[in-house]
Design a protein that fits this description.
Chain lengths: ~350, ~400, ~170
Amino acid sequence: MSFIPISLIIWLIEDLLYLIIFPGLVTILVLVIVIIWLERKIAAKVQMRFGPLWVSKKIGGALQSLADLLRYSFQEVIIPEKADRLAFILAPGLMFAFATIALIFIPVGPYYSVLFPSYYTILFSLALIIITPIFAITVGWASDNKFSFIGALREGFLLISYEVPFLLSVVSMIIIFRTYDYISAVQSQLNFLPGIILNPLAALVMLIVMIRTTGRFPFDITEADSELVLGLFTEYSALFFGVGMATPYVELYNFSLIFSLLFLGGWWPLNINVMNPVYGLFLPGLVVVIKAFIVMAILVFLRAVYPRYRLDQAVRSGWSYVLLLSILSVILSVVEVMFLR
Amino acid sequence: MSEKIFNIDDLQNINVEGEKYIILQIGPSHPGSGHMRIKVWLDGDIIVKVDPDIGFVHRTSEWLSERREWIKAIPIVERIMLPDTVHANLAYVLTVEKLLSIEPPPRAQYLRSLVAEINRITSHLYGIGIFGIFLGSSTVYMWAFGDREPFIDLMEMLTGARITTSYIIPGGVRWDMPNGFKERAETVLQYMERRLKDYEDIWVKNPVVQARTINVGVLKKEDAISLGVVGPNLRASGVYYDTRKHQPYAAYPNLDFEIPTMKNGDSYDRLLIRVEEIKQSIRMIRQILKDLPEGKIVADQIYNQLNPVMKKNYEEKKRVMFPAFMIHMRPPPGEATAKVEAGRGEIFFYIKSTGDKYPYRFRWVTPSFRNLPFFTHVAVGHRLADLPTIYGSIDYFPPEADR
Amino acid sequence: MNIKDELLKISSNIVIDEKKAYYKIVIEESAKIFDAANSLKNLGFDHVVSVTGVDYPDKVEVIWHVSSYSVEDLKGINLALTLPVKKPESVNQNETQGNLASKRPPVTVPSLVKIWPSASFNEREAFEMFGILFEGHPDLRYLMLPEDFYETWPMRKDFTYQRAKVFIE
């Protein structure tokens, strides 16, 4: 036992707790359940009706999503005869897995690190986030249905159109903060100004890409209810369907965390100089998660306002307006770095 | 976008053989299809040919009416045109009155126009709601269906039933206006005018709605005339025609109203024109409530045939129990036609009587049946996502097209 | 314009009843229907409201109701363009045997779709309900009835479920 240092064991246990409880799986579960309920309640408030009410009447139906999750767990699993079985079963799970794994590399506090501290957390998290939509296309291909197929094609078109602006906006923030690490980026914002004031164009582009990638209105094109029956997940039932419906919210959480770390100042106004789990991770993490939750609530509210765009309008605007904005944001950040040395 | 194809010969000769075209059956159980199947041939994302396959809710109303007594056709006809029951009722009764040569009294004419205009508002709200959900906005859908409720409550106050009222009978109407109706109606109309401002803010001026509907589904004036489309779709393409002005019935010769027409004929115009027509209907209802004349609500020929118990009922409660003698009504031999402007377009009736207790030929054409060429002629050349836009903007109701 | 004079130029057999809003013009032969329809279109009747049939024991009357959207005088007129066609002799006179279709063959009439495109869906419905074959219609197939109603012509007066052998649960 003497050559296995105690600090190694403590380190492993700590990482496991971070992965499972905060800011890991339990946090994701709670946040997804709350945001689904909040979306339905906000839409219902605008539309002159109640929304979810009966499941847990005293708290306004907040456990409705949990009840839906239970219902999905007990439904019958139906797999079409001519579907590609391996892809049909694995693809939704892989989608959810890759969306969740990206959280490993997003630090919510200066003391946070899983397995090893790194100076390249921005690049790692982006790489993992961008892989997820490929499995969405697999989902559309695997079920032997023309509507899912058309949904997968639409997802492919939109994925390609909005990837370049996204990367360019993150690149422009990297240029301003001069680091590939989230923690140093937040430190620069605490010393100077939040990212949204330094480069508002990049913030705008990031917001638009967030709405597109997670399928919020007005970019609800892949699961267009009135043209394709349910888009990609038409043939799915039971827990595959539940996981497929929950994945966009996990992606939304990822993007909101990145947005609040790069643009909203991270754990501002807490200025951390003590490095231990409580002051270094828990408190700043709470602030970051609350900021991310507010961004998620605002994006989810758009369901009540906008209908959906048409595919060619969205693709065209991705290659023209949004790309132009992102190139301008890069130029803006280069100009700022040169003159505000 | 490929250029418009209009000539009917060209449309039938499009070659859709081969593997280049995807056949998509937007079938009966689909959120965006209603009770019909739309068979679409797609070349990538462009629609090449559309074949509407109707008949899923064909309820053989003509066959049934030719084997039932004359008065029993009223519920049959009402339940087929569901958002617009009063106009179907009115069209049938107008035809029968022409065969019987009965003229209803003025108070009954005004009451008929009153329920017709209230029904026009609910029908247009229904159309706006369905258009909203086809484009993806559930807000307008919930608002439109919620805003129908005050008007349906008004109908219940006046006629006793919410939707299938069977209010209009040959010779007049069945119930008189109760006390307190005028104040209640004024409250409802003011509520609707406030809500129309909300609709304009969130729906008509919405940039996504404008991007999806402007220049989509354009139908020019000459095409609209030769394809024979009806209703607000016709007026949105620039044709000045409304049955209430050109073949007047009920109290419309005495009312002062305008008929809006638009210029472009695209889906945005079809949306705007329904909002304008709701405003005109509100204006007409106010005039009717102000100018309502006194008098009986049934014609003298009908009143003289009521027995003393029914006459006492009429004097006390101002209601006509549906007279049993109408079961054996036999109009004299002859043929008659009538046209009525419903919310979606014009209803046409042609009835032939040989003096028997059943009609000999009962023929009616509903507005949605005459709007079918929109699918085959207008949707060609657009993208797949434009099909729900066009479908929602023409306010097509499958049960009334199938009759 | 005087409607009565204009219509009398096209055919001598007309019925006008203003109180019942009933205007009817009867063309006796199917060969003349195309020219009559053309002259009506030049007068200003530019769309078809309904195409239907009326079934008598010895003939079927095909009626096109036409009206006008563009000419002011004609906007209030529903004109019934009527064409009585004799039913052909049925092949099998035996009432209780044989296919029902052979006893009730369809009648043939020229189609007016080339003049008025709005007649397209209406003529399909008249075909399946009455058994009126429109020659020259580009796409004459069943519109609303399913396949087991082929050649049963439901709206004729001698139609019953038992004789048509249609399966009803």
